[in-house]
Design a protein that fits this description.
- The structure holds two protein chains of two kinds.
- Chain A has helices at residues 2-16, 20-33, 53-76, 84-101, 108-135, 140-159, 169-176, 184-202, 205-214, 216-221, 226-252, 264-274, 286-305, 313-328, 330-336, 338-351, 353-358, 360-372; strands at residues 44-46, 49-51, 163-165, 178-179, 182-183, 254-256.
- Chain A is 74% helix and 4% strand.
- Chain A has two domains: 49-328, Orthogonal Bundle (ABC transporter involved in vitamin B12 uptake, BtuC), CATH 1.10.3470; 330-373, no CATH class.
- Chain A is globular, with a radius of gyration of 22 Å.
- Chain B has helices spanning 2-14, 19-28, 32-51, 60-85, 93-110, 115-140, 144-162, 172-179, 191-209, 211-221, 223-228, 233-259, 270-280, 292-312, 318-343, and strands spanning 167-168, 181-183, 188-190, 261-262.
- The two termini of chain B are 29 Å apart.
- Helix content of chain B is 76%, strand content 3%.
- Chain B has a two-stranded antiparallel ribbon. A two-stranded antiparallel sheet of chain B has the order 2-3.
- The chains are: A mainly alpha, B mainly alpha.
- At the A-B interface, helix 6, helix 12, helix 14 and helix 15 of A face helix 6, helix 7, helix 13 and helix 15 of B.
Chain lengths: 373, 344
């Protein structure tokens, strides 16, 4: 009796963990591949590099993870950044056009300078977004729409409307190179994620971001510089997009102002939503976002491996967005699972009333909703 | 009773409106953004006339071509105006246009259905798509941004499911309709341009002279108050997205007529053009304020940028994007200053 109740409560604690569903979806997607490609999980060594489906999922998903991590923080402040795709294009275009102008394209100093230039441009874009959102008080969707529209034009202006190809060994490393048998971009992603987690969870920064997202006015009144936090978050997001832009252009050794990072903002938002970060702001989960980005990349890979025509990729994605959103919607859950869910929640509330108050995430989630309705 | 209602106007007329208050009232006027956009259009047109007068810019046909080349955008932007006035947003417009071109081309060319059957089907599919999105947005309280984003993926994906390659239309009715011209004495208009102007007129009537139009403004202005007043909030919201879906499908048909083919990549990013046109036309993105006539001027300004760049000859097409972005930014900032001043 007691053992069964403890296992069930442990199971419930597990399912209620915020990472449970994203991870479950990821594992399910990975398992779907096994009947079609039996050696899906095998990782083999060749030329001193590790090869395998898992490695390539992380490799191809790394720009998306980066962009999505930046996007998570923006969404946590109750905003959204549509300009990341354009920033990806601008960064790649600047870096590649600088390198292609160099006499010696392989020179390390030139490559570093080119990367610095690209990242600087990205941060300036982020500063502009943050300025419009925090200082001018413009809705984030609209403020970032400006760079989304104009940014691609700027990227094409930089590349002169052409695809700039370069041939630079050091630049190739960041997106297509290997280090310690693993793709170098995995280390870049790991570093960025680690720094982000450390900054947001080991310092008060994450709490401040969530406070601003929960209620910007209230957090300003308690003395949080909410404007500064917002500007910082947009700059960080643009920086992540910039690194992703370097990675994408380095992987193909080319800058394409038109197509680089096209629709990556939508994928990134999708990854954030799958990862369980509420679009209303006020709470976030970097781990969830990473898993969400991996889910999207795995979905793409799965569609290739199981032989579904690739053109249905977008339909699949649409279906995933709809299902995830419907499951996140309290009203939908109430309607579909109706009485059963309501009864269970009521019982839980009656059994341990402390749980409701002790869950700050639930409280912050509910708060902005009341404003909206 | 009458005294209380008259007193504000009376006091206004007694103090012979000192210049700051007049300026404040002018800035607070809701019609100002439309006027500014119209003025901008006239200035740009005048600038074009001065610069390219020997290259035939003064021909009336150049002006009429703005309607011919941007008729589909006008129809799509009218649909988006409804959504934005109600305080929502619709990102699925471009995909819906692409899907309609594909759907029409496929039915006409591959299935051999007559155009008369295909047109109502395409419009019905568009309206139904919009209805579904509106239904989900209202009933499950999911943000319109995300739902219409899913719509964007879905319709673009459905395009690709129909066919990966573009389908060109060689049907005789389509080509004769595409070439049909209505002479106006000084120039001509295509069927697409006329349809778009009719849509604009209908939208103007609906928004300003019907109950539904007032409800759209009321919900966009303040959803809570609209609900407390007893307005049918859900029905209106769903209807707004249905209108947008219908307009997108109609825009898709016009686009098919204009370009005479279906392609899975047609009209990518057109939703941004439509939103930009609406914003430049002076509609507040927070909803509740704006005019569909402003959208007309927004579309005309965007179209004029394109034709000026064509006339310039040396400028590349990406300058269109940059100019659109800059205009968008300016108008958003102007809107922002206006709304803050109104509150103060």
């Amino acid at each position: 009796m007691t053992t069964s109740s403890t296992t069930s409560s442990r199971w419930r604690a597990l399912t209620r963990h915020h990472l449970f569903w994203p991870v479950a979806v990821l594992v399910l997607l990975l398992l779907v591949n096994v009947p079609f490609t039996p050696d899906f999980f095998s990782v083999r060594m060749a030329d001193g590099h590790l090869y395998g489906s898992l490695v390539s999922i992380v490799l191809f998903g790394s720009p998306l993870i980066l962009v999505a991590v930046g996007m998570t923080l923006v969404i946590a402040t109750g905003g959204i950044d549509l300009s990341v795709g354009a920033v990806v294009a601008i960064t790649g275009a600047l870096a590649c056009s600088y390198i292609s102008d160099q006499h010696d394209q392989g020179a390390l100093s030139g490559v570093l300078l080119a990367m610095g230039l690209g990242l600087l441009a990205a941060v300036v874009c982020g500063l502009w977004n943050g300025f419009l959102v925090a200082r001018m008080g413009i809705q984030p969707i609209i403020a970032t729409l400006i760079i989304m529209v104009a940014g691609r034009g700027v990227a094409q202006l930089i590349t002169d409307g052409q695809i700039i190809t370069i041939n630079s060994e050091p630049y190739k490393l960041i997106g297509g190179g290997y280090w310690l048998t693993l793709p170098f971009s995995i280390f870049v992603v790991a570093a960025v994620v680690a720094v982000t987690v450390a900054l947001t969870r080991r310092t008060a920064l994450g709490l401040l971001v969530e406070a601003v997202g929960g209620n910007a006015e209230a957090s300003r009144l308690v003395g949080i510089r909410s404007r500064r936090i917002k500007i910082m978050v947009y700059m960080f997001c643009a920086l992540c997009a910039g690194i992703a832009g370097l990675m994408i252009s380095s992987n193909t050794s080319a800058a394409d102002g038109n197509n680089a990072g096209l629709w990556i903002e939508l994928d990134a938002i999708l990854a954030v939503v799958i990862g369980g970060t509420s679009l209303l702001g006020g709470r976030f989960s970097i781990g969830g976002t990473v898993v969400g980005a991996l889910v999207i990349q795995t979905l793409t890979t799965t569609i290739y491996t199981i032989g579904v025509p690739t053109q249905t990729n977008l339909v699949f994605k649409a279906a995933v967005v709809i299902v995830v959103c419907l499951l996140q919607s309290p009203k939908f859950r109430a309607k579909v699972f109706g009485a059963k869910f309501a009864a269970r929640f009521a019982a839980k509330g009656g059994a341990k009333p402390a749980a409701a108050t002790a869950d700050p995430a639930a409280a912050t989630e509910a708060a902005p909703k009341m404003e909206v309705s | 009773m009458s005294a209380t209602t008259q007193s504000p106007t009376a006091s206004d007329s007694r103090t012979p409106s000192s210049s700051p208050s007049r300026a404040a009232r002018l800035l607070g006027d809701r019609r100002l953004p439309v006027a500014v956009t119209a003025l901008l259009f006239l200035l740009m047109y005048g600038g074009g006339l001065a610069r390219y007068q020997y290259y035939g810019f003064a021909e009336p046909q150049v002006f009429l071509n703005l309607f011919i080349d941007n008729g589909y955008l006008l129809v799509a932007a009218v649909g988006v105006t409804f959504v934005i006035l109600s305080g929502g947003i619709d990102l699925s417009v471009g995909s819906m246009i692409g899907f309609t071109t594909m759907f029409t081309a496929w039915l006409v060319e591959r299935q051999g259905l007559p155009l008369l059957v295909v047109v109502p089907m395409a419009l019905a599919v568009g309206a139904f798509g919009g209805f579904l999105m509106g239904y989900v947005i209202h009933n499950f309280e999911i943000q319109p941004f995300i739902v219409t984003l899913a719509g964007l993926f879905l319709f673009r994906g459905l395009c690709l499911v129909i066919s990966k390659e573009s389908i060109s239309i060689s049907d005789s009715t389509v080509s004769s309709m595409a070439q049909a011209q209505a002479s106006l004495g000084v120039g001509f208009l295509s069927i697409g341009a006329i349809v778009s102007l009719v849509v604009l007129a209908v939208a103007f009537y609906v928004l300003h002279y019907t109950r539904f139009g007032r409800r759209v403004y009321a919900i966009g202005g303040n959803e809570q108050s609209a609900m407390l007043m007893g307005l049918p909030q859900g029905g209106t919201k769903i209807a707004v997205y249905t209108v947008s879906g219908f307009c997108s499908a109609l825009a898709g048909l016009l686009f098919t007529l204009y370009i005479q083919s279906g392609d899975p990549l047609h009209a990518t990013g057109m939703e941004l053009d439509a939103i930009a046109a609406v914003v430049i036309g002076g509609t507040l993105l927070t909803g509740g304020s704006g005019y569909v006539l402003g959208t007309l001027f927004g579309v005309l300004v965007l179209g004029l940028i394109k034709s000026i760049i064509q006339f310039e000859g040396t400028l590349s097409s990406w300058w269109t994007k940059i100019a659109t972005g800059v205009l968008l930014c300016t108008f958003i900032l102007v809107q922002r200053f206006m709304t803050t001043r109104k509150k103060a």
